[in-house]
């Protein structure tokens, strides 16, 4: 605008990714694909406002420590009376508030998906995004939620990931009841604290976890047992025998009947889950007793997802079952969340997907001279009427220059209008890649299907 | 999550609209329609981060007085060294920065669209949104920009609006050069100041404008002349004779040759614009010499758009031509912006559009008993494989209850699997609106096209 006078040269903001138009086509494709798969499985979309009262955002998770607060720059006394607001750092907290606020208007179980940006003020040097898209699905019941929905959300997400230009994804599944029952069985009192330590296994290794748990007063035998549990991983329900044998050989405390029942119910539930996911999406699911998820509120299935060959990304799709979405209780649910921007960033960075061209238009209609621009526009409109994205050349330069204009943008076809009186809808169309030029009628010609719109090409 | 204990009952935040899933379908339809029309005309999409340095956002517009600043809640010294950031209040400022930052990688003229939320901390009691979607198109050239693009952006926007479930839109067009030339001709020195006063004509009336201009030292004769200019409105280029006659009868100052030339060039340009828009979209455009637009940076065409029968909304789609998008100059452009959320809010509030159902799924596959759930899932997957959005009943209640479940959500069809051994893909499908029930094969049956996905129904 020039309205602020000359400024210092602009600098990208670390952690706030922006794509070129060609890259944005990949991101838009990912979002559209997720929307299609979620809708096909009967999930409806909502969007929530991006701000929540700060006291609703505050909590124990790492993300809640990195809240961006917002306030009006030119605040007056009115502003001072308003609630302090922050940008949401995930889509679960706003979804919980949405359900609480609209509970009288929603039908339960409520199946929703939500694809929006979230913000976390993480240190930029960690190479993590501060602004990124998440895509969440959740099913929330009223008072009860059937266990088979734990498999359903995993299957929907597995299919969504399979529909994207990505290598195979493996879902690592666990059950919070199984783990809690076992931990209680070996005498651990602060189960949540122990889970948070085990959740760091990848980062700090068994030695680090041992040290942490020792510091929390956990006995060496118990630490040994829970590290043995965390090492169990099977591609099917055969883990059940392994965990039961482990229980039998572990230092179980007196009076652990209730813990044992919780452990067994969790093992049964996880076995059903792993088999159900693999039945629907073969070789997708793994029972992985290491999966802890740092968040306190999970009570059943917990999920993480690794991408083959891109394990360094960490989990690209995580979630779990929780007892209640809202503070008052009564809304049990299960959900999973995809970190869309990190996936898109990897797709682009690793060449997993590119758009076949940078612009939507398949055709540039050349302009013979400015007096005959209307003829070119009429041809373009006939093409558009049949769904063919078309641009009219912005100038009436020599045809060679107009071809160059198309070439630089990746527009595959250039249409040359009939000379004549400038009212004809006929002309010649040139595929500027092959050089082939053929007569064409604006009411009949169409580009080959693969050239109609930019395609997403797998790398 | 229950993680924060029981809280006060949640309250909607004034100015931050949220839709139900059924309403969101209307908003998503609007956004998808805009994206389609823009792409069909050769505009490519970008998204920009939602934050900009505050000093880039600051300026003279009303919007820039209502910036939301953001900062990390738990700021450390690192945060103190970071630039102060604010949420963007429009899509022009970030687009300008994007072009400046990526100028070496973009092809000019650069045609882009952008559909994102923006934030303005306006007083909620004014009934205006603080968070809302905008949809912008701009074409930005390098050093030059042909005038015919002023017509093209208007035509694209007129077609986009015509594709939405709205009554007819009328575009009110003016030309900044015409107005400036005239104002200078009658001796006004502070043209921008006078424009800002005339821009309030609708709000404060001719008396209010007269008072303001008088206060700015404008002569009574000049005020009379510019109010006469503002009263001219024609549905075609016939305004040219009227403004020329007005010039001839106005108190023109000495040595106004340059002003006269600017005035005449502007009039010619506006005449071409009005005729071109009406040729492409009949009866859409009106030359309206009252249109001023408060923003300083417009230099050619300026646009406002009123919706028939909903003039109280004010302009739903505005913009103009500007000399340079960026501070250093050299990037002339033209663009228009639709206030999407206000439009959607009106569509919903006035019943202009509703979704035919609240959920994406066309079919609920009933479950005979939990042992045969897999058979129902197999049927659902066959339907989904052919693009039919389907849900499997979450419970195996009596069929009457399962039909009720579908009915409450607006799912039109319920599929009853064949009893038998639970592996059959046959069954019966019931249209629960008519009660008609027919045998069906999961590999062949499809709902009528109009029931496949939720439709947007015009009110």
Automatic annotation (TrEMBL), chains A, B:
Biased composition (Low complexity): 439-448
Protein's name in the database: Histidine--tRNA ligase
NCBIfam families: hisS
Residues reported to bind L-histidine: 90-92, 120, 134, 138, 293, 297-298
Alphabetized Pfam families for the sequence: HGTP_anticodon, tRNA-synt_His
Subunit structure: Homodimer.
Keywords, sorted A to Z: Aminoacyl-tRNA synthetase, ATP-binding, Cytoplasm, Ligase, Nucleotide-binding, Protein biosynthesis
Span of domain Aminoacyl-transfer RNA synthetases class-II family profile: 30-360
Gene Ontology terms for molecular function: ATP binding; histidine-tRNA ligase activity
Listed GO CC annotations: cytoplasm
E.C. number(s) listed in UniProt: 6.1.1.21
InterPro entries linked: aa-tRNA-synth_II (IPR006195), aa-tRNA-synth_II/BPL/LPL (IPR045864), Anticodon-bd (IPR004154), Anticodon-bd_dom_sf (IPR036621), His-tRNA-ligase (IPR015807), HisRS-like_core (IPR041715), HisRS/HisZ (IPR004516)
Region (Disordered) residue spans: 434-459
Entry's transmembrane regions: none
Annotated GO biological process: histidyl-tRNA aminoacylation
Family: Belongs to the class-II aminoacyl-tRNA synthetase family.
Catalyzed reaction equations: tRNA(His) + L-histidine + ATP = L-histidyl-tRNA(His) + AMP + diphosphate + H(+)
């Amino acid at each position: 605008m020039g309205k602020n006078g000359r400024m210092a040269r602009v600098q990208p903001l670390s952690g706030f990714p922006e794509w070129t138009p060609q890259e944005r086509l990949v991101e838009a494709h990912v979002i559209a694909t997720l929307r299609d798969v979620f809708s096909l499985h009967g999930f409806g979309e909502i969007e929530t406002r991006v701000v929540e009262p700060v006291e609703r955002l505050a909590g124990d998770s790492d993300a809640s420590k990195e809240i961006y607060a917002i306030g009006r720059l030119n605040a007056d006394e009115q502003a001072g009376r308003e609630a302090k607001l922050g940008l949401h750092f995930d889509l679960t907290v706003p979804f919980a508030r949405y359900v609480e606020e609209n509970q009288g208007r929603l039908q339960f179980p409520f199946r929703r998906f939500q694809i929006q940006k979230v913000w976390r003020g993480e240190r930029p040097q960690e190479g993590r995004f501060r602004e990124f898209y998440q895509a969440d699905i959740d099913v929330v019941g009223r008072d009860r939620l059937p266990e088979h929905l734990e498999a359903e959300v995993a299957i929907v997400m597995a299919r969504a990931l399979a529909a994207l230009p990505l290598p195979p994804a493996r879902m690592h599944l666990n059950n919070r009841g199984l783990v809690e029952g076992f931990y209680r069985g070996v005498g651990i009192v602060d189960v949540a604290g122990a889970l948070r330590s085990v959740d760091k296994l990848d980062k700090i290794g068994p030695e680090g976890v041992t040290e942490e748990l020792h510091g929390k007063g956990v006995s060496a035998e118990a630490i040994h047992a829970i590290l043995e549990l965390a090492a169990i991983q099977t591609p099917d329900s055969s883990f059940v025998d392994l965990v039961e044998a482990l229980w039998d050989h572990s230092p179980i405390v007196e009076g652990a009947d209730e813990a044992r029942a919780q452990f067994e119910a969790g093992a049964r539930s996880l076995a059903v889950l792993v088999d159900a996911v693999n039945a629907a999406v073969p070789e997708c699911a793994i029972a992985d007793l290491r999966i802890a998820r740092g968040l306190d509120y999970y009570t059943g299935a917990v999920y993480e997802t690794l991408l083959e060959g891109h394990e360094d990304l960490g989990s690209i799709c995580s979630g779990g079952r929780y007892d209640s979405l809202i503070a008052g209780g009564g809304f049990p649910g299960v959900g999973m969340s995809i970190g869309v921007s990190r996936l898109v960033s990897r797709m682009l960075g690793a060449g997993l997907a590119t758009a076949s061209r940078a612009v939507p238009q398949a055709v540039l209609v050349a302009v013979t001279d400015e007096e005959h621009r209307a003829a070119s526009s009429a041809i373009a409109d006939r093409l558009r009427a049949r769904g063919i994205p078309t641009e009219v050349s912005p100038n009436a330069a020599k045809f060679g220059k107009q071809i160059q204009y198309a070439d630089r943008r990746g527009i595959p076809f250039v249409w040359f209008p009939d000379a004549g009186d400038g009212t004809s809808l006929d002309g010649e169309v040139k595929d500027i890649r092959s050089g082939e030029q053929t007569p064409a009628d604006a009411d009949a010609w169409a580009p080959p299907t693969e050239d109609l719109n930019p395609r997403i090409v797998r790398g």
